[in-house]
Amino acid sequence: MKPALLISAIVGAVAAMSWSPAGAISLPAAGPAQPIPDASAIPASLAPGESLAAGSAVLVPLMAADMQAGQISNVDAPATGGSDVGKPIDDITFVRKATESGYKEVHSAREAIPQLQQPELKRIAEMLVADHSSANTRLAELAESKHWSLPAPPAAGPPPSGTAVINFDAKWTAEMIAGHERSVAMYRAQAQSGEDQDLRKYARETLPKIEHHLAELRRLQK
Fold first, then answer.
1. In 50-196, alpha helices (H)
2. Cα 136 from chain centroid?
3. Phi/psi class of residue 162: alpha, beta or left (left: φ > 0; alpha: ψ in -120 to 50)?
4. How far is CA 10 from CA 14, 71, 201, in A?
5. pTM for the full model?
6. Which are the contacts of 87, defined by CB distance < 8 A and separation ≥ 6?
7. d(CA 23, CA 177)
């Protein structure tokens, strides 16, 4: 065989062996291409020499979103703590309300004395006039020493007619009970939670008298 033909035959044989199925090299099938993470989502605060693997970089946007949501929830969450319980009214308001209540108790009891039929109720009415007048005087002196303003006394009403209306005893007793229940609650709150020490002392010392009035009125209620 001629040299040219021999070389051509050898090249053809080698080519046939390289592309035959038996001599083919199998490669693993590659999956779909993964998207490249956005560079803006990768945190810039990496330590020198630190790098992110391709798989970790994919999680960076999700981790950043979770951190941001957590920060927002922490800011928006209301602060927890003890509720502001406090006392119902402040010291100045207590002085005003207690003074007005004291004026009313004295005025009502004084006018009721000639109209009440039950001797026991008359006695209680006289006790109310004496005790509340004394308490009003003490509270006024305390307010003056603290430079607290006081409401003006109510204008004097017409003198009692002297003729008892039907069921006057029951109506007056019910009104006094309701008024003393409010006073007991107000004085009790002030005695426990008042800011001014002298005013708390006044409330603590006056409260037992008001509670005694209430107990006596309830005892005689019909």
1. 54-76, 91-112, 119-145, 168-193
2. 35
3. left
4. 6, 74, 123
5. 0.57
6. 189, 190, 192, 193, 194
7. 112
Most confident range (mean pLDDT) of 87-91, 122-126, 162-166 is 122-126
Q: pLDDT tens, 203-214? A: 999 999 999 999
Output b/e per residue, 51-70; b: 16+ Cβ within 10 A.
Answer: eeeeeebeeeeeeeeeeeee
Site of tokens 């009891």: 109
Task: Give the tens place of pLDDT for each residue, 34-51.
Answer: 555 454 444 444 444 444
Q: How far apart are CA 118 and CA 167, in angstroms?
A: 11
| Averaged pLDDT of the chain | 73
- 105 close to 96: Cβ distance less than 8 angstroms: no
Q: Which residue has the higher pLDDT, 184 or 57?
A: 184
Q: Choose among 151, 208, 211, 209: nearest CA to 181.
A: 211
User: How far is it, in rounded angstroms, from Cα 17 to Cα 11?
Assistant: 10
Residues ≥6 apart with Cβ < 8 Å to 91: 148, 190, 194, 195, 196, 199
One-letter amino acid of 11 = V
Q: Extract the tokens encoding 53.
A: 């693997």
Domains of the chain from N-terminus onward = 91-148+166-220 (1.20.1260.10)
pLDDT per residue as tens digits for the range 109-154: 999 999 999 999 999 999 999 999 999 999 999 999 999 988 888 7
What is the C-alpha end-to-end distance of the chain, expressed in Å?
A: 146
Largest CA distance in the chain: 160
